[in-house]
Amino acid sequence: MAFDIEMIKATYARMKDRIDAAREIVGRPLTHAEKILYNHLWDGVATEAYERGKSYVDFAPDRIACQDATAQMALLQFMQAGKNKVAVPTTVHCDHLIQAKIGADKDLQEALNQSSEVFKFLESVSNKYGIGFWKPGAGIIHQVVLENYAFPGGMMIGTDSHTVNAGGLGMVAIGVGGADAVDVMAGTAWELKFPKLIGVKLTGKLSGWTAPKDVILKVADILTVKGGTGAIVEYFGEGATSMSCTGKGTICNMGAEIGATTSTFGYDESMERYLRATDRDDIADEAKKYKEYLTADAEVYADPEKYFDELIEINLDELLPHLNGPFTPDLGTPVGEMTEKATKNGWPLEVEWGLIGSCTNSSYEDLSRAASVAKQALDKGLVTKAEFGINPGSEQVRYTADRDGLLQIFEDLDATIFTNACGPCIGQWDRKGADEQKKNTIVHSFNRNFAKRADGNPNTHAFVASPELVAAIAISGKLDFNPLTDTIINKDGEEVKLDEPTGFELPPKGFDVEDPGYQAPVEDGNGIEVVVKSDSNRLQLLTPFTPLGDTITGAKLLIKAFGKCTTDHISMAGPWLRFRGHLDNISDNCLIGAVNAYNQETNKVKSQLTGAYDAVPATQRAYKEAGVKTIVVGDHNYGEGSSREHAAMEPRHLGVAAVLVKSFARIHETNLKKQGMLALTFANESDYDLIQEDDTFNFLDLNEFAPEKPLTIEVVHADGSKDVIKANHTYNENQIKWYEAGSALNLIAAENA
């Protein structure tokens, strides 16, 4: 039986009235995404048609999911909200704080030894406030959510950018910062700019070496890392319905890599099969009653150009397997074109590691298809040329795959089976030799491949591919291996060719598991005490931020970031994950990966107090101690990447008042607003070039801060000359109140006082 079935039934029961009313208000047929959005309006039945990309709308999500790294800060904030229990079903999943090194059992035990304080904190807070707790080793948040909590037509938010994975089961699932989650936990509305809609029509059918992963790799190549910003991507067509539910999840998961608000598919038979296979007949039975409301109106898919803001068509019969990378997930290369491209760009062709798993590709189907390639290698006398690592997505997937002999196949090829956790995908990989920073190539089925992301080595060239292609390339040891045409020499000196991979959409014997790793909260948590030691270096109770005020003058430039500046650059993961619950300690990684535009170096900026160059956090702490506010300047798509609000909270904690860039990634812009900072964009992008290293900034009309009214900033240069520039913003009246209160949380706490 499903979790929270009564909540799901209630969501379905109101669907007809709300969606029928919305269709009348809008005056046309509705897409699948629109139906979900209008069914989850905070105010109930729609009374107006919202303008895509412009209208700010209050929503009432059905549930929340948090992973352990982000849950710490989210729950520390929730503890300030003045509530006794979360207002909607919420779960915490311990999957980020487990480092991959030796193998599952030893790595898990090491994590329990190293992070017991954090796990106990999360467990006790979950118990106290009525939150479901998934223990370390239970699995990766997004796979566990797909198996247990996702449901067609639902809306959820999660404190991880890859929350969007649940779109594979027909949800609108959106990654947010912890402060957004706290809004919903505290029983208040969640605000989102009504998204634009991108339609992706899939014709034909996947076959051979081409996998669902290749669909999103192709879409990323088309749209780039910012092409989906502010939009929901909705997939449809015969190619979509012919695909497995977990394959759909893979496609939605990597929608985060194109900046999309989320991605989704309409309800179909593959989703019903998955629901029933994961012991959720009750949801499948309910969904059948409302099937027409769980996908787009027929007119939309029949004439999509009329209903989507942008339309992409992909013929799956013609789609080739892709490798995307290095250093960015949108640089696509079809197999057969890699030799020329890699040679031209100096990418190492020898592959040192092949890694399968992560929240993106760790389903039973993924493992079975990759195992079919591995089995061929064993049968045909091949020896794996690259090292091999496997991260199962959940304990249920791991247990079932082990029962069915899939894991043994990988182990027979000397693969390392890591814990059911994120591991190398988020930098939690203690890779031998990475500290030597040698130039090398790895391939993986993960979603992100930013520089230093997997192993901390800036010279590791990481390429993203499907699990089956990763397996084939790892066996061959060559980045440019094309399994459609190429052969490999086996240990007997024979040329052998790999056959097309095969697999199972769902386990033929069904799923099984002894201990899924779930712990339900106690009925009444009022008597539970949450202990945070004052001398802890892992956890720190939060102090409310002081409002920045309506007068900011004499602000100094902290850093002008050059080029790509992701959340990995602003707040690195990897070893820094251990400080995710301690704001002051983790602030020592603030912007240390950002490239200084003036010297092209990282973590080396000029202090206007001393004239000396020092680390970014040290320089900023000196400004804070001197009572000097600062600003950060950046390029396009600033804050691309994960949902981590630490990238906003750290500069806020250290005294940065404003971030002024050419454009923002959606989640990061919201996170800055939530923490009471100024998130601004150049009205004239070329003004970025006016900013000099010793500049001082005076905000001339901040006292008139209002929606749709640009701010005026006087930029004073070291020689006394000045430039006056305009800075745009997207704050509405409520968001300006966050700024005036010092943070959104301050406002909530005041309302609940």
UniProtKB/TrEMBL annotation:
Enzyme Commission number(s): 4.2.1.3
Every Aconitase/3-isopropylmalate dehydratase large subunit alpha/beta/alpha domain range: 35-477
MF-aspect GO terms: 4 iron, 4 sulfur cluster binding; aconitate hydratase activity; metal ion binding
Cofactor(s) listed: [4Fe-4S] cluster
Leader peptide range in chain numbering: none
Stored Gene3D superfamilies: Aconitase, Domain 2 (3.40.1060.10), Aconitase, domain 3 (3.30.499.10), Aconitase, domain 4 (3.20.19.10)
Keyword terms, alphabetized: Iron, Iron-sulfur, Lyase, Metal-binding, Transit peptide, Tricarboxylic acid cycle
Keyword set includes Iron-sulfur: yes
Catalytic function, reaction form: citrate = D-threo-isocitrate
CDD domains: AcnA_Mitochondrial
Classification via SUPFAM superfamilies: Aconitase iron-sulfur domain, LeuD/IlvD-like
Domain of life (superkingdom): Bacteria
GO cellular component assignments: cytosol
Domain Aconitase A/isopropylmalate dehydratase small subunit swivel: 557-685
Enzyme class: lyase
UniProt xrefs under InterPro entries: Acnase/IPM_dHydase_lsu_aba_1/3, Acoase/IPM_deHydtase_lsu_aba, Aconitase/3IPM_dehydase_swvl, Aconitase/IPM_isomerase, Aconitase_4Fe-4S_BS, Aconitase_4Fe-4S_dom, Aconitase_dom2, Aconitase_mito-like
Cross-referenced Pfam families: Aconitase, Aconitase_C
GO biological process, one term: tricarboxylic acid cycle
Pathway the protein contributes to: Carbohydrate metabolism; tricarboxylic acid cycle; isocitrate from oxaloacetate: step 2/2
Protein family per UniProt: Belongs to the aconitase/IPM isomerase family.
Protein name as it appears in the record: Aconitate hydratase A
Source organism (scientific name): Neptunitalea chrysea
Lineage: Bacteria, Pseudomonadati, Bacteroidota, Flavobacteriia, Flavobacteriales
